[in-house]
Queue: 4 jobs
Job 1
Amino acid sequence: FPKGRSSSLMIRVIRGARTQGEERGVIQRECAAIRAQFRQADNGTRSHNLAKLLYVHMLGYPAHFGQMECVRLIASPRYNEKRVGYLGAMMLLDEKQDASLLITNSIKNDLSHSSQYVQSLALCTLGCMGSAEMCRDLAPEIDRLLRASNSYIKKKAALCAVHIVRKVPELGELFTPASRSLLSEKNHGVLHGAVVLITELCERNPETLEQFRKAVPELVQIMKGLVMSGYSPEHNVAGISDPFLQVRILRLLRILGRNNETASDAVNDLLAQVATNTDSSKTAGSAVLYETVLTVMDIKSESGLRVLAVNILGRFLLNNDRNIRYISMTSLQKIVQTDHNAVQRHRGTIVDCLKDQDASVKRRALELSLALVSAVNIRSLMKELLLFLSSCPPELRAHTTSGIFNAAERYAPSQRWHIDTILHVLTTAGGDVRDETVPNLIQLITTATELHCYTVHKLYRALIADISVQSLVQVACWCIGEYGDLLLRGECEETEPVQVAEDDVLDALETVLQSHMSSPATRGFALTATMKLSTRITHNVDRIRSIVSIYGSCIDVELQQRAVEYNALFKKYDHMRAAVLERMPVIDKSSPGHTNGESAGGSIKEMEPTKRTQEVFSYLDMKYRLDAPLDHVTRPGKTLGPNYRLFMTFVSHSHPPQSVQLQMKAPSGDVIPAHGLGQVTQTVLLNNPNKVSLKMRVRVCYTSQDFVCQDTVQIDSFPSPAW
Amino acid sequence: MVYREMSALSGSLWTNIKNKRCGELMPIRQMYFLLLLSRQGKLRLQKWFTPVTEREKKVTREMTLMVLARPPHSCNFLLWRDLKIVYKRYASLYFCCGLEDQDNELLTLEVLQRYVELLDKYFGNVCELDIIFNFEKKAYFILDEFLVGGEILETSKTAVGIAMEEAETLQETMEEYMSKPTY
């Protein structure tokens, strides 16, 4: 290839390659030829070769060896070489390359070239990829061109100035005077550039903004001229005269009118005029109307104008064009907090958009619907959201479920409704809910004391239908463990009771335990639930004993540990089993233990609901962790089981447990004589370095005439000098 | 201005690019790029209005796959990372714009429409092959007469064509000059 192929020929050859490998081969050869050509003296083919290289670059192949060639070509006196050189610079060079600095001088020269087309190349390139240094260097030139040149150059200089201001904001001051005078130009290109430049200047400098507020009447006049003007073939787009310019002027007016009464007043009439006169049957008109609405909502408009704007958005919602429905919802989302009632009026249409086929429209409708949930509409809106959830695209499911949970928590009309809603979500999309859902639901269930029977029935039915959804299965297991006795009673007020035997319930739990679909955490729930049932059923305790003993050699370490502990609860600590496994108290939502729930082995605490800063001592609800506290009280070496146990442990609420320390000394004796003829004392040492105010709940377990008994005592205040 | 190295798959890619453009965290209303893609995802034209490394450019591949997967009659707007993408399909070409969140999407649709019309007028019923074979001469030059730095340069339908023709005559003059013998 003495001079290299023409670019069309090369392109044809590349496109003819049948495989990626073949293409790479062709390109390697071509690049080698191009490189060879670059090294040669000027032979009139340089621009062709650079053009070829740019094509190769666009296909994704490296082309950095062309950078210096760009620099050389830009410096050429020939127009076609300059043109390709500048194009190459915009494609291959950016401010990170050293070579980009080398073109600064060429640009500077070309800015004063006799041909406006050469000037234009320089302006365009500077305006696209000029670095901060280049901008600083050449800004005065640009300012000169803004003032004294023809329209063709002025409009390019204006956009070049925009780029400079974005790169080096301090230079904005330099361009302010010239940009002001550009507003009196008639050429639309120049006017547009001027408006863009002024917008940029005002956004970066509050003083400049103040200055340009005086230009509001002038801008209003220009805008009016555009709106009222007759048909202009040059600028007409679907009946709108220069929608691009109209939108930019509206945007500038928005910035000038923001937080300013005078400026806002001056544009109120104009905005009303544009809003009513713009034909929005095509996109161009809708674009202008859209910008008008955004402006109205952002400045201090009259309330009548705001209502008009929201109504326009409402009309957009009914438009056949999906794009228009989409941007309408985007805007409504922005104003849903400030103009909540106005947006509520369109709730019906918004909810209908949930059923749209388009994923983007659906997403917008979901966001907006969630923002519109209120105590008044919660029931009807939740129906729609649940319907949406059953068919919503996978990428929106997690967001939908958490939105539904938030809404339910804030506005639930009743506990039963709340529980039903969460269960519905878990059944439909239980795989897409956040981790906190399980402990949150458990907490909710404990508070709904009258609904325990109802809840356990619902969950039991759900469990025997399907054990694949982990979140649902975990809650179901927990419920059955806690309230299994209510299930077995065979009666329920709120729903049809089930007729199940103890074996059926244990079957259900065992199925979960054995299923390969169950995650390790879920199996933990199932095992614990099974264990709890040992105090709630009467006939089949042996079955539970054998399940627990089998899992004592389970491979899963977590399960094994639990099983071993439960085994111990059956054997050595059997007299405590009832106390340990009794019904859980209502869980306070604020306690950190509640977020761990069963799975982390944290303790469940009872708290004074109002005073969060108080630390509360409570008994440790040891469902499956039998460790330190017991050791404090057990007196080693006694073969007869001690007659009482003192359970006491500190559980922290707002500080880590380490801040208050508990140490229990050995009791003075282990038998309390009857008839008040003696006493046993046990000393407990409390270290309370933070001097937090404390409450203590003490539970005493003891046997009396072979009955296991317990007593709970609460100590509400300690004498403050004690700390 | 600090240049931050980042992984190509970083979620904050565009935030970093935005920060690179300007030392402050200003709300910049701007077009970041304009890409023309074939139905198979091959790039036919790429215009970047912000400095981007080659690696970063390759990240947009993810976006192009999203656009190409859209069913017909879809909404022309989608969200990618923290950018709005406005796209329009004309025959076998997808025109994609990456925008800042503040921009007016409907107007951007009109911008894409105008660019297609300009190409059409200049080529006479433009097709993908025209763009491929004349990319450097025509497609980019027309674009540079219409958009600069991500902003509209000329709103008149006729002015762009006039400028192109006049620039072409200048080019021919030069080429004539080149082909003249040097004696």
Job 2
Amino acid sequence: MNYFPDEVLEHVFDFITSHKDRNSVSLVCKSWYKIERYSRQRVFIGNCYSISPERLIARFPGLKSLTLKGKPHFADFNLVPHDWGGFVYPWIEALAKSRIGLEELRLKRMVVSDESLELLSKSFVNFKSLVLVSCEGFTTDGLAAIAANCRFLRELDLQENEVDDHRGHWLSCFPESCTSLISLNFACLRGEVNLGALERLVSRSPNLKSLRLNRAVPLDTLQKLLMRAPQLVDLGIGSYVHDPFSEAYNKLKIAIQRCKSIRSLSGFLEVAPHCMSAIYPICGNLTFLNLSYAPGLHGNKLMKLIQHCRKLQRLWILDCIGDKGLGVVALTCKELQELRVFPSDPFEAGNAAVTEEGLVLVSAGCTKLNSLLYFCQQMTNAALITVAKNCPNFIRFRLCILDPIKPDPVTNQPLDEGFGAIVQSCKGLKRLSLSGLLTDQVFLYIGMYAEQLEMLSIAFAADSDKGMLYVLNGCKKLRKLEIRDCPFGDSALLEDVGKYETMRSLWMSSCEVTLGGCKSVAEKMPTLNVEIIDESEQMEFNLDDKQKVDKMYLYRTLVGHRKDAPEYVWIL
Amino acid sequence: MSSENGKRLLETDAGGLNFEATELTLGLPGEPRVTSDGGAKLGSKRGFSETVDLKLGDNNREVKLGHSLQEAAKSPVSKTQVVGWPPVRGFAKRGKKSCKYVKVAVDGAPYLRKVDLEIYNSYQQLLTSLEDMFSCFTIRNYLNEKKIEQVNGIEYMPTYEDKDGDWMLVGDVPWQMFVESCKRLRLMKSSEAVGLGLTTGPKYSSTN
């Protein structure tokens, strides 16, 4: 291989696109490392504190697309204070100063200020794509800057962000000359938008394939937009409330029928369930349907809709679909690969929810199922064993019983055997979330069988340190481990500190680890940042090593302690 | 530490259930929790983790202690206490059903009913539903100008109280506007409405 000129190798490397593979390629020898780094265009950084922007820029001068993730996953559930960190500004600032021709920026769980967005919009001439997922810290003013300044913008995709909506004119800021949009998603914005500007924007965007509207876009605007963009592949409906006998509804029916390319449908942020029949003509082609923001859609109307969706591969719904509704899914959606059932109201137990029955039905009917997120009232070992038999191909299996320590209601036993069956049967399992009454036994099974497991989420489980040890010893490919409210203490934490360097991160909150234990890890492993997050001021007054730590987050890093931590975060 | 805790609680559990140990306190996260030995426990965990401690070192999970743990867990108090559970992002936004329940009073009826206006799309649907609900009455349905079989000879006019506190005739404004401004409904006896000069019907019938 060393006899090939660099250009040939570079051309060969062009075919290697996955991050993992490119990382492997760079480790072969010095010359491959050099060729690979100059040709690398896309970089993924799973923890923004593991590396610095300067080192990124130095290594990959040809960088065009950057993906960054900030806060730990449990931040989604309010377990991480808002200003813990994950600020994108330093990254944009550094990139702007360099010669990097950034074209795409994808951020998840990061704090994004309007200043960052403005700087971004002005610094990169060829900037094309901005994707923000679960971010916060910006307002519609920042979006206005992006719209106004990014002349070749193709994608503006906002997913589940906390945006301060100034009800401004950001949509109007797209200049008349902007005709390059392929994807526009502003479903998470709460405020009004200029409907006229929206219509004009869509009219002059012939390449628009994905459009997701927010709640403020009414039905008659939707109809006009669809008339102008029948080429859409992905549609997110904002408001879907209207009178089935109205002229607007008739026009909508016609408009929808023209959209023969729609494969993905979401939204229905406001829905009148009596009017779903207008959607039926496009249901037969759908591969992705997301109704998880539409609690008004349930019962027979929902089932009827699903019966039209025979080609569905991914379905996201609320638990008001019920076990019966899942039975309909099992009969209809034979191509289903991914199912997510979200809770509509956990405090009204038994009201509108699913149980183990629904899951068993889906597992029997949808043999291609490989990804599950399931919030339910209860689960039994027998059901899990059946599911494991029916669907051995699970890659992601996330089960959340609304009462987190509920045992099998039939046998009153913990759910160890059920989850054990899942890990034993699903040899390709990469992600697992557990719930229900669980002892150390389930962790023994996980350590023994879950050989491909990369991410594990545990809450209110286990009896002793053994549980954690089984996992750390057994799961060789583990990258992310997040634990809350389990009786794991220092002896589990300290058993094999070297293991944490092979992982991206470890989160432990409300467990039994002490300050002394955490200090010990930090001492032994200088390549880890060990953070203690404690807002209660206990740390100020009582630095006793025997004190239990409320929240600990440790992660490997090449750049030492971060300088932007707030005062309630101690980096040991 | 944990197994000691479990043993200690078993010992104090003389004959019945050790309720004190399972008692969940309404403390803020991080507040010291006073345990049965009188001492304050620093870095206390929340409700569920306390109950998790109870089953440590005890293989006979079927024992009463396990049962009381389940009972404690079922208490609604413990559910509302736990931060971050269920683990779903933006949870409050998803679950909020947009529903608008308003009281419905019928002159002469001994009790009121409640309807969710959000589940209807038009006045016709609402009135049909009200007729079903109060099956012994007939609602004067002049929206369609059709004569309804009168069961007991009494006709009712549908009226509602709006945001300003005024009593209005149902049917004058567009449906959505009505849903937003309606605070309560009252089916008024037609005989009382005589003499109010209500000769013209409302603007919005079911065909709008």
Job 3
Amino acid sequence: MKIMVAIKRVVDYAVKIRVKPDKSGVETKNVKMSMNPFCEIALEEALRVKELGLASEVVAVSVGPSQFTETLRTGLAMGADRAIHVEAPENIYPITIAKILKALVDVEKPGLLFLGKQAIDNDQNQTGQMVAGLLKWPQGTFASKVVLDKEKQVATVDREVDGGIETLCLNLPAVITTDLRLNQPRYATLPNIMKAKSKPIKKFTLQDLNIEIKSDLEVVEVTEPPKRKSGVIVSSVDELIDKLKNEARVI
Amino acid sequence: MRRIMVTPHKQGCRYYFNQPSVLIKPYIGNFQQAFQTFKHPSVSLGMHQRNRCRSQYRCFASQATIIQRRSDFSTISSEDLSYFKNILGERGVVQDEETLDAVNTDWMRKYKGTSKLMLQPRTAEEVSQILKYCNSRSLAVVPQGGNTGLVGGSVPAFDEVIVSLSHMSKIISFDKVSSVLVCEAGCILENLITFLDNQGFIMPLDLGAKGSCQIGGNVSTNAGGLRLLRYGSLHGSVLGLEVVLANGTVLDMLSTLRKDNTGYDLKHLFIGSEGSLGIVTKVSILTPPKLSSVNVCFLACKDYESCLKLLLEARRKVGEILSAFEFLDHDAMDLVLKHLEGVRNPFPSSMHNFYVLIETMGSNESYDREKLDAFLLHSMENDLMSDGVVAQDITQASSCWHIREGIPEALMKAGGVYKYDLSIPVEKMYDLVEEMRVRLDASAKVVAYGHLGDGNLHLNISTPQYDDNILAQIEPFVYEWTSKHKGSISAEHGLGLMKANKIHYTKSSETVQLMATIKKQLDPNGILNPYKVLPSSLLTKN
């Protein structure tokens, strides 16, 4: 069985985000970029499944401009066997990504599609669900535990939902999106980093897959949230009462 | 550390112990009643405090140093207090016990003074007035910044007046073109780093204490830290200082010029003088630009020679982007994995003898990765390392750093620790560690780590409890060994109180004599940070 993992290159989790002065978006020039943390977890899970002998191959997939190949190299260094890069502009919406992923699934025919639950740059949490809908595959989102039964071709997924943990049984092929507590991604060790240089990254363009980017959404403005006002130290109880009454208007 | 006050025989005699010195042991039983022992927070490290001094307690790395409070220093009077309140206002004069308790105790909780007064000036003028007055009254003074020093240099030995720079924390100016930052001495390092971050620059030094330490203190102790390999010491990056001398003279050497060869460059006297020649009130410092591409890799080596070869290769292949080269040995890694939470071994399958952490900082991500990959490939092919990982994002990089930076904490959790900070020729560095292991055998665990790139070894001997016999095996052997190999007994921590009488292991007597001459010239009454840095025998008034 083949496993496909979709990964995204985002601004590094630990970087302090700044909005561009022209308010058109977030500053990404000269800022450290790396693999989306949830995608890392997804790839790690795929690798573990393969190491258990339940899959034959892990294919890492990414949709974006040319720098995205660097993130794919990281995925190969972690242990993925092959990679696919779909050349596309950045900041595409999840519906388009979902369509692209469907087209790739039709080509590669994997038994499992892993994704991170959301990307930390736009926090949309839509791609996994949309691609499952397009493929008409069952989906197990926010997975915190995945157990595969190869014979029965079934995946048992523990989901982290608001009320607690929900356990679902999915028939394969299925889409699983990963949540934080699923696993701790491995470091990329040097021997694997060196091996990764010779692993193939196949390139596709949007025309190859017959996808058109038609966006009915336009970003008008991006601003920072209003800064929290600092607290004020009052000098007496009378002043406190005065402020509560007249400024905060709570008494 | 336990303070033992010997009443009534010798008034104001203080004994600084790790364990009782040979001299005092016979007397301890007799003077039991007279002894007033102070329970120290560090003693709660699971050690039971008993009345007799022979019980286990917090240890430091030097033998007992008997210091007597100088009789020529005055004590605070009510006139002094009103004078200070006059110049500083009520807010600038602190006598509240709780606050004083904290500022009298050093960061490692080894040393505790009994100062009854802390002053908080807001301008250099106020510092000048304070010192002029204290000089005329023979009141000893301890300049204090963030109080994060590790050798007891920032807290009073007795009842010296603490002059805190914390309220002088303004950033005066920053010039993007010349990249010179001018600020007051009380600015916390982390705040300066945040300020510069918004401008696209960084501070040329970085240390674990950055959340509390102040730039004035960093300058006065010539702090080293993690970036020394890349940006050099503060002697190079500090362009100017404003210093207040013991007699109140305000010395304005606050230049922002990169080059100025007019006369003797006096600021270097104050950088590293640990507050004993003057109080630094303003600093002007050159700041490097912030570089976006940071790469961290964590490598495993089978022996020390491989670590050295890696260092040479790194300098040659990635030299211009190299920003840190740290090492730790097998015992250090073992300790960290055992005692620290949330630490992951990058090589879960096996333990290696040595680990090296390399960090590079550059302006072009792909170019840097290419260079780093080439260096790593070459090193692997030539068998310089047995394994390695490259951090793929900032979180992984922090985890790698956490292993290295968490060693001191792990040591404290493991029980007692004897700490040594030594500069030794790099090829010989590990020989000392191996000799110590032979000397101590199974009685203690010898842990070594440090700034390999700077030739700075942090030798730590970990024991479940403090033990006189173990200390006797360590000192003075460690100092003598270092001295024999022409190393330094204090690479970056300074002398402070802890090593005040140990300077002769590293500096010649003529050099130390000249230091004493300079000290007497700049501070004839010896009021600035007394009992520290230089041996007291050289500074007695004639």
Job 4
Amino acid sequence: MARIKVHELREKTKTDLFAQLKELKTELALLRVAKVTGGAPNKLSKIKVVRTGIAQVLTVISQTQKAKLREAYKNKKYLPLDLRPKKTRAIRRRLTKHQASLKTEREKKKEKYFPLRKYAIKA
Amino acid sequence: MQTSMDYQQVLKYPLVTEAAIQSIIKENTLVFMVDVCANKKDIRNAFENMLKIKTKKINTLINYDGTKKAYIQLPPENQAATIAKRLKILA
């Protein structure tokens, strides 16, 4: 079987991907038997290829699933916790940029009528 | 505690030691290394789904290094020797 190309995997449907995963796993099982019964070196070196193939398929499956979930929740009010930004605990509890920049009417007027002046002093 | 394992992860590889080959010939059983978390029901499931072979009895044991070995006895209509040849366990 040819080397798996991930950009081709991304175009497949979910059922296709799961079918391919099953194929790869059965192939791995055969290769493992060959390893135990003293198989040919070309079979033994194929084990690594098949394992990375399985990893690639699983990655594509989970990436597309996450992307679709994000789309589905895009304009909703509440996001599931694992789709929200992770950052750090402290950062998540800080005031948002908008909240920190809010000023009272009083403060806004003060800034408008009495801004910080720049002077130049004649030497 | 009903969680069963994903059946493709259960069976790892068959054993081909002298003793294992004897058990293929004499007792119609195949000997497999199996995941430690698998129980006999899982092993039966995995065997019948992946290899499409009926099983009669399964005995398991845990080796000293933490791996699990399963002796899978086949009913008389399945000959272990022919199955072993099909799976390339016996040459």
